[in-house]
Amino acid sequence: MIPVTKGMRDFYPADYRVQEWLFSIFRKASSLSGFEYYDCPVVEAEELYVRKAGEEITDQLYTFEDKSNRKLALRPEMTPSLARMVIQKYKEYPGKIKWTSIPQCFRYERMTRGRKREHYQWNLDYLGEKSMMAELEIIATAIHAFELMGLSSENVKLRISNRKLLSDLLLGLGVAEDQVLGVFLSIDKLGKIKDDQIIELLVKAGLDTDLASKVLDVVYLKDLEKVKESIDACGASIEGYTEIQELFSLLTNYGYSDYIEFDFSIVRGLAYYTGTVFEFFDARRSLRAIAGGGRYDNLIQNLADVDLSEKAKGSISKEAVGFGFGDVVIFELLKDLKLLPELNLEMDYYLIPFSEDEVAYLLPIVAKLRKQGFTAEMHYPPQKPKKMFEMASKRGAKNGIIAGSMELEKKHLKVKNFKTREETEVRFSDFMESIS
Asked: Which CATH architecture has domain 13-336?
């Protein structure tokens, strides 16, 4: 027997019900904040992802060639696809865009708890807004979703940083501009490997040992006042610092100050982030990041410029903030906290015929119930009453409609409320009229 592909998942009906419960929360939070749904193909051109050099994602792609020898990939994330869509219809979307999606994504990566090779990911993206209001909308919508799941700031923390702020500080410390991305990718390993291994990565990125140690000291700063002192000491730009202060103020005014923490080690592994970066973690840090995102103001312009003439380069641009929220880690957290719901089947009516004659008799009832919006199912083929009633219970039926030879002869039905055990006999025609 062929098993499910390693790193992939089957969703049996009970699993699917829980997944749909989670997705319904994503959809509700998105709609309440005014995000519109979109979608795109799961297969994209490979070059859409490999343009970002030096990132792990390039080595994690599921790639193949089609029959026309085109190099394609299963999407590992949604942001490049969104950027492609916006570029294709740029003139039709001149203003602000608030879009959401729940795509399935694929990455060939090492599997650990909370990490599969496929996952569904709730995405929120706010394009065309320069201010920190875009970050606020994304983050507040995400936190609202957590709260709809029954979680609070006691269970979930949001760690925020700003790549612009960190980049300016690094330059002030003496890191060369062409070394900054390598430093970011090294810092992204913080907490996953030991500090001395981080130092080794920083040295490989071109820093000497003393500078690597200074960088690590700065990354461990948790107090924004201390960060400001470091900015003043090295004469770095305060633009990134001003942005993060504004964002913290907005989140506090919104009522979410209990969730937020400043953390320089949050840099995100993707090169296209330009400013704010953030990740949600469980409060105990027993799991990997639940969700994360940030500002990517240059991605659309960079992707568009590849195909534009020299004269037209830079003509297509749009500020953007987005995030991705995978379904794998949050299921682990909800399971740990015993917050996953037990979702049993529910059905309005289960129809129980005692013979084939009653099957034909009840079919108009089944059709009418479904047309009127009731969930209804008939037991087939007829069996012993005990087995049919057991199946009604298993299917989560609220009511039963029962017909035997006596009901058929009298043109009647028996309607039973399975919760109260109350049973009434009604005429067939009266019941049909009652559900009109």
From this structure: 2-Layer Sandwich (3.30)
* pLDDT cut 90: percent of the chain above it: 86
CATH class of 347-434: alpha beta
Instruction: Work out the angle at residue 279's Cα, subtended by the Cα atoms of residues 29 and 209, and round it to the nearest 5 degrees.
Output: 170
Place of tokens 């865009």: 97
For the chain, the structural domain boundaries read: 13-336, 347-434
Q: How far is CA 38 from the centre of its chain?
A: 14
From residue 56, alpha-carbon distances to 76, 218, 324, 381 in Å are: 11, 25, 17, 56
Distance between CA atoms of residues 189 and 197, nearest Å: 9
Region of 189 (left: φ > 0; alpha: ψ -120 to 50; beta: rest) is alpha
What whole-number distance in Å separates Cα of residue 168 and Cα of residue 237?
A: 6
Domain 13-336 and domain 347-434, same fold? Reply is no
Q: How far apart (Å, rounded) are the C-alpha atoms in residues 418 and 350? A: 10
Question: Which residues is 397 bridged to in the sheet?
Answer: 347
Q: Are 283 and 110 in contact (CB under 8 A)?
A: no
pTM: 0.91
pLDDT tens sequence across 264-308: 999 887 788 999 999 999 999 999 999 999 999 999 999 899 888
